[in-house]
Amino acid sequence: MELYQFAFKDRSFQTVKRFFKSLKPLEKRFYGDRPKSGFTENTVFDSELVLYNYMMKITDEIFQVGGGNLTSAEDAAIYLICFENHCALVDAGCGYSQNRLLQNIEKCGVNPNQIEYLLLTHCHFDHTGGAASLKEILPCQIVCHESEADFLEHGDNAVTAAGWYGARIRPFAVDRKLTGARETIHLGDRTVEAIHVPGHSPGSVVYLTESQGLNVLFGQDVHGPLHSDLLSNRKDYQASLHLMLSLEPDILCEGHYGVYKGKEKTADFIRSFLRADE
User: Fold this and answer.
1) Rounded Cα–Cα distance for residues 195 and 191 (Å)
2) 8 Å CB contact between 116 and 106
3) Residue 23 confidence (pLDDT)
4) DSSP code string of 153-179
5) Strands 176-178 and 141-145, how do they pair?
6) Using CA atoms, how far apart are residues 15 and 202, in angstroms rounded to an integer?
7) What is the pLDDT of residue 276?
8) Which domains, from first to last, does the chain contain?
9) DSSP conformational letter for 258
């Protein structure tokens, strides 16, 4: 089940249902009859967040600009961080809807040329397939963990799971290879912390930052899955889930399950995968 969070002046159930139905023609227009990871009859709506010009405004400085109905249905979520004129993207999607992604960024009031970093959470195709073409367009440094850089630089279609999508990943250079358990990335006078959380993949990373007094965690594949093709490690995965719980985020931005707001909701979501993995 996916979670999408919006704000309504009238927060009644009927208002949410009318809003849901209004999106159906847009889904048909953009996706036809193809499967998609967007709104379904089981979608849970939460009134904490705001739909901003069809983008998801998470804080005044953080938006979801890709994934689901925002770009290609195959994309994992793509998030935009913008601290004044210093911006970063978290993940790149598959690369099938780059024009829509760039338009979404502009609709958030951001010039794509302000993007200084592309922060990759791990090497899988639904998160990195668009990185090579974005690098050709944007003046950004690509960041990922050193243990997965070779898979991206040499175009490993097995470990990146590109083959799962019937695709081939375009190789690209990684500008900054994370080596430590925790490293700091500077966006102007603000910071984003990269934290190594192996398990789902050897070089999985979450990014932690503060916005409007809230700790925001970009934990793209908290849910896994674990698979031998992905070089997953169950023991590491369990340890990483405990580490993410210890960070006590106020907001969790996940790759496929939406955005969770509130320490209790984020902790419950993370714990659910600890219980599932027992």
Assistant:
1) 13
2) no
3) 43
4) HTT-TTTT-GGGGT--PPP---SEEE-
5) parallel
6) 44
7) 67
8) 3-277 (3.60.15.10)
9) B
3-state SS assignment for residue 149: helix
Which letter does DSSP use for residue 43 in this model? P
Cα separation, 249 vs 244, in Å, equals 8
Residue 274 banded pLDDT, cuts 50, 70, 90 = confident
CB 183 within 8 A of CB 193: yes
Helices 234-246 & 263-277, crossing angle to 10 degrees? 160
- CA gap 191, 41 in Å, rounded: 39
Cβ–Cβ under 8 Å, residues 199 and 238:
yes
Q: What tokens appear for 229 in the block?
A: 């093709």
Q: How many CB atoms are located within 10 Å of the residue 45 CB?
A: 18
| 73: Cβ contacts below 8 Å, ≥ 6 apart | 31, 34, 35, 36, 37, 38
Label residues 211-245 b or e (16+ Cβ within 10 Å = b): beebbbbbbbbbbbeeeeebbbbeebbeebbebbe
Helix (H, G, I), strand (E, B) or coil at 186: strand
Q: What pLDDT sits at residue 116?
A: 98
Which two tokens mark 214? 């809230």
Poorest-pLDDT segment among 28-32, 122-126, 249-253: 28-32
In this prediction, residue 183 carries a pLDDT of 98
